[in-house]
Design a protein that fits this description.
It is a single chain. With 269 residues, the protein is of the alpha/beta class. It has helices spanning 20-33, 52-59, 72-84, 133-141, 157-168, 182-192, 211-218, 229-232, 235-244; strands spanning 40-44, 64-68, 90-93, 107-113, 121-122, 127-128, 142-156, 194-208, 255-268. The protein has a domain at 20-156 and 176-206 and 259-268: Vaccinia Virus protein VP39 (Rossmann fold, 3-Layer(aba) Sandwich). Strands 3-2-1-4-7-9-8 form a seven-stranded mixed sheet, with helices on both faces. Strands 5-6 form a two-stranded antiparallel sheet. Strand 1, helix 2 (52-59) and strand 2 (64-68) form a beta-alpha-beta unit. The structure holds S-adenosylmethionine. S-adenosylmethionine (SAM) is lined by residues 22, 26, 44-47, 50-51, 68-71, 74, 96-98, 113-116.
């Protein structure tokens, strides 16, 4: 009898996230937390999965990553990627982290990548403007000794550019992010009783392959209170934006901007 050798090659599928700076900053946050194999991780505001997927690789087959996300579309998309890539240790649920009902002390790590906090803390005066329900919940679900990791924005050059552009056209518009800082986060963490604070800042320059892609992403933001972008931005403004943005264009027509993030890790006593 003649035997035949059959070899199979397992294809490793890479999940599709939002890419660019999301992945870069997501990897940094997960690396800073030094998540150990077998751990149970809560990923708040999973979005496209830029922190969920690196965390799932770190915890391995004996660990688990639970994502919670407000946006139903993101939940469906990221669970779709989890299924497509055959990832068995991660799942995302349509849950608001402020009202999550996971048991007390059920996670070894909690991650919150760029989820925003402007509804309870004012970084210009360093004071609480409402009860910080979210951090209370984070502390409640963390095990004693468990670690929390957060990322947030210091600078988003492209959003700053857009705001200046609209202001030059005599239009009031949203900032679309609130620059935060270490002092404010120290106050929030101290009030919640989290310890061993550690901060890192990281800048990243990134490139949109075409001007059209950059403009499309900028119009994903709602710039005007109570009005659609299309009600305010006319064709002559589009042409002007395209003309002015040339300063950020590379020789081959890509659009380049920078973003700067701040990372924080802390520990529950
Ligand atoms: C800018 S995205 C960041 C996604 C991802 N964490 C990352 O670092 O790439 C923030 C996400 O947090 C979600 N989010 C904000 N507040 C939340 C809350 N209280 N509970 C669950 N998700 C929340 C938003 O719906 C949004 O998809």
């Amino acid at each position: 009898m003649v035997g035949s050798l059959i070899t199979t090659q397992n294809e490793v599928l890479v999940p599709r996230t939002w890419g660019t700076y999301w992945d870069k900053f997501g990897e940094t946050l997960v690396r800073l937390l030094e998540i150990r194999e077998g751990a149970h991780v809560l990923d708040i505001g999973t979005g496209g999965g830029s922190t969920l997927f690196p965390a799932s690789r770190r915890v391995g087959p004996t660990g688990k990553v639970t994502g919670v996300e407000l946006c139903e579309h993101c939940v469906g998309r990221t669970n779709g990627e989890i299924a497509r890539c055959g990832i068995s240790n991660a799942e995302v649920h349509p849950i608001d982290a402020r009202t999550m009902d996971f048991p007390d002390a059920s996670f070894d790590y909690v991650i919150a990548g760029f989820i925003g906090c402007d509804d309870y803390f004012d970084f210009t005066t360093n004071t609480f403007v409402a009860e910080d329900v979210l951090t209370k919940q984070i502390v409640r679900v963390l095990k004693p000794g468990g670690r929390f990791g957060l990322s947030t924005w210091l600078v988003q050059e492209d959003l700053d550019w857009m705001k200046r552009f609209f202001n030059d056209h005599g239009l009031e518009c949203r900032t679309n992010y609130h620059a935060e800082h270490e002092d404010g986060w120290r106050a929030i963490m101290r009030a919640a009783g989290l310890e061993d604070l550690w901060f890192l800042e990281e800048a990243y320059r990134y490139t949109y392959p075409t001007l059209e892609l950059w403009w499309k992403e900028m119009l994903d933001y709602d710039w005007f209170e109570g009005q659609k972008n299309s009600d305010v931005i006319d064709e002559s403004m589009v042409q002007d934006a395209h003309r002015r943005i040339k300063k950020h264009a590379t020789e081959n027509g890509c659009i380049r901007f920078g973003r700067k993030a701040i990372f924080l890790t802390a520990r529950r006593a």
